[in-house]
Specification:
CATH architecture of one domain: Alpha-Beta Complex
Largest sheet: 7 strands, mixed
Helix content: 40-55%
Shape: globular
CATH topology of one domain: Spore Coat Polysaccharide Biosynthesis Protein SpsA, Chain A
Structural class: alpha/beta
CATH class of one domain: Alpha Beta
Radius of gyration: 21 Å
Length: 365
């Protein structure tokens, strides 16, 4: 039992190190200065079977208050009315251009191909990306996310949140999204950027060409966002943008099965991350799982209860010192007091995802 208690102390030290040292790099980060330049922007959207969403997104984008931008929409082999809606918008607005990739017997769609086609068509050096099921959080979205471009910063990581709806499942989805952003912003702050989200990311054509596009991970069907950042991002070229105006909002999955499938797909790309990223991300999750497991076991066994409770309290104090300013930065303040419960269920679901993926990778993308 004393060995388990010693292991528990080590786990607490690891958890406190993550929350109290690493994650506070973002939690207490100062707002970054905006560039005064307003260079032309190409907004690129890849979409497939998005007839319900693409018109809503384009309507919001047309309201953006930015002096010069174009919108390039790539229809990636849709078999619904997506392309017709895009054509209608393009006919009415000169700033909207489109590319149609046809559905054929040998091609059913690939987001990396679609994004590459959009980049090749883009007129401008600075590129901003979002997804068809998103909407910008403000009419200053382009201005806000692109304000972090500079001579050195050619990759900008933004926050892609989910709409606040009723119910615990919505809170769980948003907490997982918050935790993911909390991590990738923090790692970027210490010079180890490892991912971004395609719902809200920006980079230059020069950087894309320098990386030879998605060539190094073209064998992985997903990863147009995180694997690209993992490959090319570094301390010198990467900036983060968390201002509320720069957020995008998406409709969350409405069933836990659909959400779990989405998470299973995301996990598959992590296997291609650089070893240092895999080590830290895997270590963090393992320490979370051990914290929950050992806490329950030691409390039930009655071993050194007052010391166990003290260590649990110390861990949660550190957790909240970092969590509270993070929820304020990312506009997720309603999650503060339910976060420990959401964390508990998320750890269990992540374990299920890991085990399920051992027996087969998701085939539906």
């Amino acid at each position: 039992m004393s060995i388990l208690f010693l292991a528990f102390i080590i786990v607490i030290v690891i958890q406190v190190s993550f929350y109290g040292a690493l994650f506070t790099q973002f939690s207490y980060a100062s707002e970054q200065p905006n560039s005064t330049k307003e260079n032309p922007i190409s907004v690129i959207i890849s979409c497939k079977n998005e007839e319900k969403n693409i018109g809503i997104l384009l309507t919001h984008l047309l309201k953006q208050k930015y002096p010069k931008f174009e919108i390039i929409v790539v229809d990636d082999a849709s078999n619904d009315n997506t392309l017709s809606i895009i054509k209608e918008f393009s006919n009415q607005h000169k700033c909207i251009q489109f590319i149609s990739i046809p559905l054929t017997a040998t091609y059913s769609g690939n987001k990396k191909n679609a994004i590459t086609a959009g980049i090749q068509k883009a007129s401008y050096e600075n590129l901003v990306f979002t997804d068809a099921d998103c909407i910008p959080n403000s009419t200053d979205w382009i201005s806000s996310i692109s304000s972090q471009f500079s001579n050195k910063k050619q990759l900008v990581l933004g926050y892609g949140g989910y709409k606040k709806l009723a119910g615990w499942f919505n809170k769980l989805v948003r907490y997982e999204t918050l935790l993911t952003a909390w991590q990738y912003f923090s790692y970027a702050k210490i010079g180890l950027p490892y991912m971004g989200v395609g719902r809200n990311i920006a980079y230059t054509k020069t950087l894309f060409n320098k990386a030879d596009g998605f060539e190094s991970h073209k064998h992985v069907k997903s990863g147009d966002d995180d694997l690209f950042v993992n490959q090319i991002g570094n301390k010198q070229n990467t900036a983060i943008c968390w201002k509320k105006d720069s957020h995008t909002l998406s409709e969350p999955k409405n069933t836990i099965s659909a959400w779990l499938l989405q998470k299973r797909r995301h996990v598959t790309t992590a296997n291609v991350y650089k070893p240092i990223h895999q080590f830290f991300l895997g270590g963090f999750y393992l320490s979370q799982l051990l914290f929950i497991s050992l806490s329950i076991f030691l409390l039930i066994s009655g071993f050194q209860v007052k010391y166990v409770l003290f260590l649990i309290g110390f861990r949660y104090l550190t957790y909240y010192i970092s969590l509270i300013p993070t929820t304020q930065k990312l506009d997720e303040k309603d999650l503060i007091w339910v976060a420990p419960f959401l964390e508990f269920f998320l750890i269990l679901l992540q374990l299920r995802i890991f085990i399920t993926n051992l027996f087969g990778k998701p085939k539906k993308w």
